[in-house]
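Model it.
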Amino acid sequence: MMQLINILCLETSTDVCSVAICQNGQLLSCVEQVNTQNHAEEITLMIDQSLKEAKISLQELSAVAVSAGPGSYTGLRIGVNTAKGLCFALEIPLIGLSSLEILANSVENCEGGAIIMPMIDARRMEVYMATYDHQYGLLSPTEAVIIDENFIKKYENTTIYLCGNGYLKAIDHLKSAKISEGPRTTSALYMAKISYSYFNDSKFVNYLNFSPYYFKEPNITQPALRKA
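Modeled.
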């Protein structure tokens, strides 16, 4: 009899908070809140709802997969801390996935020779991005990039599948490329196959000392000093 591998997937790297239950690489349920600023308040309720819809109990989970960054400092911290707590309590492994790799896997039926370019907004004209081939193999690692003419020159006459919430920053500069539009939001929907693959390859992280991949320091504004 085939072993059932149930994985709880958490994606909180942007203003979309999403939770999914996947079984042997297939999606059983997914709950999302879009444009929420209350990841901490919503995520436990969403986990409970997703488990109920999938008819899976916490004790039946085989692992937890979480988006590890880059992305929102607060969102990543909430998702990773939630995942670590569950793994510790249930004594199950933790899978940490790149937010950009998750986005890349949102693109379906990518033509051969094309580049998948997931982008996450990183403030101003900057994005977090990486590039992947049409089979989701990593071509260039994560970096923070300013979208300008110098960046665009590298991708002239290239077929690009562009996805993520950094899309609008890049689209006007990529007129010389052949652009196909992918999903603009991150989601636990796209974690099913990749998390199952990581589980089968035992690509786990140590949840006792694991932390998100923030990539840059958080943008924290210091309060103004009062005049005496």
